[in-house]
Amino acid sequence: MISHRMRFFPRGVTRLLLGGAGCAVFFWAVFASDSAEARFRIEGSIGTRVRRRAPPAPPRSQPVVTNFGPTSGPPATVVTLNGARLDLVDRVLLGARPLALLRREPSQLVVRIPAGAVSDRLIVIARDNTQLVLDPPFVVQYPTPATPPAPVPTGTAPPAPVPTPAPPTATVITGFMPLHGGVRAVVSITGRGFAAGDRVWIGGRECRVFAQSGTQLLIEVPAQATSATFRLQRQNQLIAESSYGFTLDAAGPTITGFGPLQGPQGTVVRITGRDFLPTDQIFLGQTLQPARDRGADFIDVVVTPGVSAPFVLVGPGGRRAASALGFTLGTGPVVTGFSPPQGPPGTVVRITGQHFLPADQVFLGQTLQPARNRGADFIDVVVTPGVSAPFVLVGPGGRRAASSLGFTISLPQITSFSPTQGPQGTVVRVTGQSFLPNDQIFLGPTLQPAQTRGADFINVVITPGLSAPFVLVGPGGRRATSALGFTLLAPAQISGFSPLQGLPGTVVRITGHDFLPADQIFLGQTLQPARSRGADFIEVVITPGVSAPFVLVGPGDRRATSSLGFTLRSPAPVLSFSVSPASGAAGTEVTLTVSPARPNAAVYFGGLALPKQVQAGGSALVVSIPVGAQSGYFELEVDGQRVRGTQLFTVFR
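Below the sequence we write its predicted structure tokens.
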């Protein structure tokens, strides 16, 4: 017995193996002693502890697998499953073997084939225990072990090479895996000489062949088969038989789950499992549940009045299976109220109550109301055009409930509009109640384009037409009319402007009538900035451009032109100068007489800057004609503006 003082250090993740009534638990620990470090393994078991949980809410929808690949490969092969709602998947099996789940996304699952796996179907199990069994089966491929050559005694010459014989042409079954299983088990038969069209039988029943090659057949054990050898037929003749038999496990149905987990009478429940027969029946307590649809791995039943209990499958020959959880039988739906009590079409109304199901629908009169959100005690619906009436809930199995009060559909009203008059292009705000996004506004027979809108207003742009009340027209016969009519004024006109001419920067007042805040004034192609405005005038600041009439441009193709044109005068030059003498050779001194005096002016000749002498306070600038210069004009530059002289200076050669 080791009597050293012990300290325990975790050396990895504790592993729990579920088997039978308990869990095998393994720990790594380290003994700390004065002499050595020893490692040991403790193996034991603990009793199973079960914590009761409330049944989970049924999922909104079931996962769907559209395809997977690859469909064959050795252990450790990574397989990708594609589809939708795959984030609802809890685990994936290959037959009964769980697979490592490497990635789980809404549209993709990635799993790995474990060591020691055999060919079988992939089974996808959702969180509510519903199952998807995928075809074709995944073929697990194992390499054929090569026979090692016999050892050559030391000191002897190796034997002469022997030609490899041609492969035998006879068809032979050398083995199969697994050695036993139930109905629909997938078996991989190995051998040689297999050919297309070969048929496999077991116990007088033909097996379904999923895939085949010259050395492998993948088959499915048929229903009503018995334990027997596999027999291979070709053209109705027996050509091969396994040397030992396949053991058929005792068939028995299994219920793996059902959904939804609760509901009232009339709820359709899908019970999933394995090895279901067409004659199997489903009971809830002592009451037989009518089957609506069925298959080998599911039965859909319509829940009848009874008690909450597990589902029990009963079939011929003592077949029996029960669900692990019980179905909770609820009462019928009840509508306790709704809010708001009134509103126009498009209003979102929350209907509250008890025992609502995902398949329940809500009607207002005879019209189905689209559901936007729902739960076990509420349904949010969007009210559609129709009549004021109570809400009626209708569900499967004759489920029905109605609200005690009726919902009032509010009708639209036009209470006012502003402005009450204006020309074409005027933006008018029509105000009222219960406006909808698809309501339209007419002025007489003409539709007015909507600019912006809300539940109590619509802004429209007035189009050419006539003075009349505004009329609102909407779906479902919605209609409202304003009490007063809008007065459509004549188009804008320019009657004159002042002054008639000026320099850039001049403020000009343009007069007329029916001017709008959005109107703009152009001089030629140039927009003139507006300084102030009113219904009968616009003041603009003249910008550099051309002499032309003023043109008013506004929304809705508004346009007006002045009868006279504005004369744009050019500004006076910043300076003037004369040149003396007017000619000379290179090196000639030339005096530029400047008015007004500009001592800081730069002098250019032929584009070349010249050194200067400033005289008379800048009224005279003296420069010399540079060598190589040609006849041309002098230029002065002041504050970035150049002024060219009017007198040509001639350079002599």
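Residues 1-59, 145-149 have pLDDT under 50 and may be disordered.
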